């Protein structure tokens, strides 16, 4: 009895390993579009993927790998196992572009799909915050200038020590961890932006300035809170004095629980991010591998879906889930570029 | 003399302290058990409190005029053109027909936001593709409400907070109450949650693709890991020559069981995808990687089960003239079977709950279709839970909890199966 079961099990395993051997040959044809990239763009690329599948029947697989991981996988080559599209919460770096070229990828088209704001928020019933970028820098940098313009360990304990109009609460900011693109953008835009407004830092060399502007304090006033922004919102509700740094779409979905601080006088609203009045905002990109448009027939239409009116015009489905759309002229340029790509390729 | 020695003051004191020790230990033990039960109870309670409402969803029933102008002319109708017809305007007209007073574009947008845009348009699209004859007629459609509406009607969005603090305006709430009074909005069992693939819209998201992916992964891992693991254990225990090499292999298998699971993912990426050229995100690779993960656990469980069999059984068989192989496979292995199966099923439960290795082989992904073969892109249940928990919309939290409840139910079923198998196989002898 058990002998027969045993034979069966071994037989099944052999049969399976045999068909596993046949696997790679049998999956040469590409029946799906593969997207990798930024976790910030993930909610938007999945929405486009879903609508595109409904309209065309193409199966789209979207992986959330982070911007850096996405570019690395994207630039690996043009074989059938490589991604067709990568999304990114920052422009492609020269080193990544070089990697793409060295692997034979010549035709990469960059599509800017919209903007994303980064908000500095606290619980809805806590006092409203009205900050400048310099306030954020002085509150959160490891090294700040003292009265004599010497760089010292950050001495500030409460917000009103920096700006008397702010509340007398402990500086306690929860934000994304170093692996996150949101953290990079926050440091680059708000910390560096704040540092640039201070005269004392103008005298520093570019390397010293970079270190001063890019290093967050490590004495417990800035707290890495991982990647889960829903948990962060919950923390803010439980800790009324705390402040959180996260993407605009989470503020948009939780307006009954948290509110965003004004920065340089601008509220974090849809309009202010779109017009550029709200300073802490960045562009979101999608990169499409033009080289594969021949072997993946749906790829061009998929790229067009990102710039279609239905998706990215004001009132489109991407705006409804929190993507701040491009200015109309910018969007038309993008569409032109994607449409042109097909003309030159097909 | 003996009696007096046991009754001496010193002995009594000692006895008392010994009893106290026992009482203390019982207390510690009981509190440990109570603590474990309380944590589990708290977990389940909070999951049920958040997740239970996700098993029902609000649907709105509308009459849609399938206007001919929304579609391609009859001579150009094919599946492709029918798919890209203007379903949005049909849905807009259908909801506006309920409220003829609504005139301005801004108000119309708010009204349209009450229903699931993607859900309603895709509902019509599927019906038209299936049966193009309905073009030009009037049809009744029942589609999900938008996630915001669903949350409001379930009480997860408080309608008493100031309008500026919620996503639904006062006007929208008035329309909703009106629709409800007219019987157009009904709460139904949320079959979408079980039978739909993943979606970006919480009201349309289901676990079907992830569940199918998980089943495929577990089956592949089981088929691969069980024979190899049990075979390796039997050989190591019974047939391998006792030398340094065997000890070395043994130590390494034990170490393998303690290796962080993401390492297996890296291995899978390097070997199966980069060297053998398998596609990313397919259950076949997921199953193979997790078979590696389950393998050491099965070896250890099998060896423990084999060692618990009385040596007298084997000795008896040998003394009656059985060969070594006969003694092992006809006496020892059947005796050890309940233990082997329990260990295997527990290791499969482990496989079902694994996420980290899947990250490396591209299975942390949004997949728009339910996989039909082991080489179709797929994801797994725990991955789906992780992805949902990170999404911004409020409605995801209850769906995440519901998906966790479903995963727990599957795990409990597997464990119950292990217990049942053990007692059944144990009884048969």
What does this structure look like?
The complex is a heterodimer of chains A (346) and B (429). In chain A, α5 (133-140) crosses α7 (181-196), α7 (181-196) crosses α9 (206-214) and α13 (299-307) packs antiparallel against α16 (328-345). Chain A has helices at residues 2-26, 42-56, 67-74, 94-102, 133-140, 159-162, 181-196, 199-202, 206-214, 229-238, 248-253, 270-275, 299-307, 309-312, 317-320, 328-345, and strands spanning 32-37, 59-63, 85-88, 108-123, 130-131, 143-145, 151-153, 173-175, 222-224, 243-247, 258-260, 262-263, 281-289. In chain A, strands 1, 2, 3, 4, 8, 9, 10, 11 and 13 form a 9-stranded mixed β-sheet that branches. A two-stranded parallel sheet of chain A has the order 5-12. With 346 residues, chain A is an alpha/beta fold. In chain A, 45% of the residues lie in helices and 18% in strands. Chain A folds into 2 domains: 31-115 and 283-345, 3-Layer(aba) Sandwich (D-Maltodextrin-Binding Protein, domain 2); 117-281, D-Maltodextrin-Binding Protein, domain 2. With 429 residues, chain B is mainly alpha-helical. Chain B has 2 domains: 58-190, no CATH class; 208-428, MetI-like fold. Chain B contains 18 helices and 4 strands. Chain B has helices spanning 2-7, 9-51, 79-83, 87-98, 105-112, 117-130, 147-153, 170-181, 192-195, 208-239, 244-258, 261-275, 283-307, 311-319, 324-352, 356-360, 381-389, 395-428; strands spanning 56-65, 138-144, 185-189, 365-367. Chain B has a 3-stranded antiparallel β-sheet with strand order 2-1-3. The longest helix of chain B is centred in the N-terminal third of the chain and has 43 residues, at 9-51. Chain B starts with a helix and ends with a helix. The model of chain B has no long low-confidence stretch (mean pLDDT 91). β2 of chain A pairs antiparallel with β4 (365-367) of chain B, so a sheet runs across the interface.
């Amino acid at each position: 009895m058990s002998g027969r079961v045993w034979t069966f099990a071994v037989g099944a395993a052999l049969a399976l390993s045999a068909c596993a051997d046949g696997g790679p040959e049998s999956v040469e044809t590409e029946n799906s579009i593969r997207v990798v990239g930024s976790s910030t763009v993930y909610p938007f690329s999945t929405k486009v993927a879903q609508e595109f599948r409904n309209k065309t029947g193409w199966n789209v697989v979207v992986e959330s790998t982070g911007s850096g991981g996405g570019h690395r996988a994207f630039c690996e080559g043009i074989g059938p196992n490589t991604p067709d599209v990568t999304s990114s919460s920052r422009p492609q770096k020269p080193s990544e572009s070089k990697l793409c070229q060295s692997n034979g990828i010549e035709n990469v088209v960059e599509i800017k799909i919209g903007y994303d704001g980064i908000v500095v928020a606290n619980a809805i019933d806590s006092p409203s915050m009205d900050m400048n970028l310099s306030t954020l820098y002085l509150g959160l940098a490891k090294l700040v200038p003292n009265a004599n313009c010497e760089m010292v360990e950050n001495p500030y304990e409460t917000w009103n020590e920096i700006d008397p109009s702010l509340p007398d609460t402990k500086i306690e900011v929860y934000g994304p961890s170093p692996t996150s693109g949101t953290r990079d953008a926050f440091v680059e835009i708000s910390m560096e932006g704040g540092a640039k407004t201070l005269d004392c830092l103008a005298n520093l060399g570019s390397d010293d300035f970079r270190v001063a502007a890019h290093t967050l304090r490590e004495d417990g006033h800035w707290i890495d809170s991982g990647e889960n922004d829903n948990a962060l919102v919950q923390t803010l509700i439980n800790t009324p004095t705390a402040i959180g740094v996260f993407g605009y779409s989470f503020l948009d979905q939780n307006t009954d629980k948290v509110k965003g601080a004004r920065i340089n006088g601008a509220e974090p609203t849809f309009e202010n991010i779109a017009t550029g009045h709200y300073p802490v905002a960045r562009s979101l990109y999608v990169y499409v591998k033009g080289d594969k448009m021949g072997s993946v027939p749906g790829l061009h239409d998929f790229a067009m879906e990102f710039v279609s009116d239905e998706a990215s015009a004001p009132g489109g489905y991407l705006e409804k889930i929190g993507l701040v759309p491009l200015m109309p002229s910018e969007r038309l340029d993008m569409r032109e570029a994607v449409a042109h790509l097909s003309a030159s390729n097909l | 003399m003996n009696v007096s020695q046991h009754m001496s003051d010193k002995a009594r004191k000692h006895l008392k302290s010994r009893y106290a020790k026992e009482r203390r230990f019982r207390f510690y033990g009981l509190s440990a058990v109570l603590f474990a039960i309380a944590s589990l109870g708290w977990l389940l309670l909070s999951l049920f409190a958040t997740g239970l409402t996700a098993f029902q969803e609000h649907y709105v029933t509308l009459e849609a005029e399938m206007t001919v102008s929304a579609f391609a002319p009859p001579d150009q109708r094919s599946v492709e053109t029918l798919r890209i017809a203007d379903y949005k305007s049909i849905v807009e007209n259908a909801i506006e027909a309920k409220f003829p007073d609504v005139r301005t574009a801004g108000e119309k947008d708010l009204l349209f936001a009450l229903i699931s845009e993607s859900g309603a348009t895709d509902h019509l699209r599927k019906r038209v593709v299936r049966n193009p004859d309905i073009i030009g007629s009037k049809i009744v459609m029942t589609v999900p409400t938008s996630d915001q509406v669903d949350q409001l009607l379930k009480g997860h969005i408080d309608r008493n907070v100031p309008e500026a603090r919620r996503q639904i305006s006062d006007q929208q709430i008035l329309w909703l109450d009106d629709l409800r009074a007219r019987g157009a909005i009904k709460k139904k069992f949320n079959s979408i949650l079980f039978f739909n693939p993943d979606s970006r819209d919480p009201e349309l998201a289901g676990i079907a693709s992830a569940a199918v992916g998980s089943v495929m992964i577990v089956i592949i891992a089981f088929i691969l890991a069980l024979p190899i693991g049990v075979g390796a254990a039997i050989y190591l225990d019974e047939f391998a020559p006792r030398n340094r090499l065997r000890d070395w292999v043994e130590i390494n298998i034990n170490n393998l069981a303690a290796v962080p699971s993401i390492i297996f993912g890296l291995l899978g990426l390097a070997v199966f995808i980069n060297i053998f050229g398998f596609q990313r995100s397919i259950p076949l690779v997921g199953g193979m990687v997790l078979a590696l993960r389950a393998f050491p656990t099965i070896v250890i469980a099998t060896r423990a089960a084999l060692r618990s069999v009385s040596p007298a059984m084997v000795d008896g068989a040998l003394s009656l003239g059985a060969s070594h192989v006969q003694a092992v496979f006809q006496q020892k292995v059947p005796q050890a079977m309940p233990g082997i199966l329990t260990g295997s099923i527990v290791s499969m439960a482990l496989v079902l709950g694994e996420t980290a290795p899947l990250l490396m082989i591209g299975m942390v992904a949004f997949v728009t279709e339910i996989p039909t073969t082991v080489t179709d892109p797929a994801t797994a249940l725990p991955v789906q839970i992780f992805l949902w928990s990170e999404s911004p919309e409020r409605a995801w939290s209850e769906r995440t909890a519901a998906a966790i409840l479903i995963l727990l139910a599957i795990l409990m079923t597997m464990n119950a199966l292990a217990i049942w198998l053990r007692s059944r196989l144990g009884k048969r002898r």
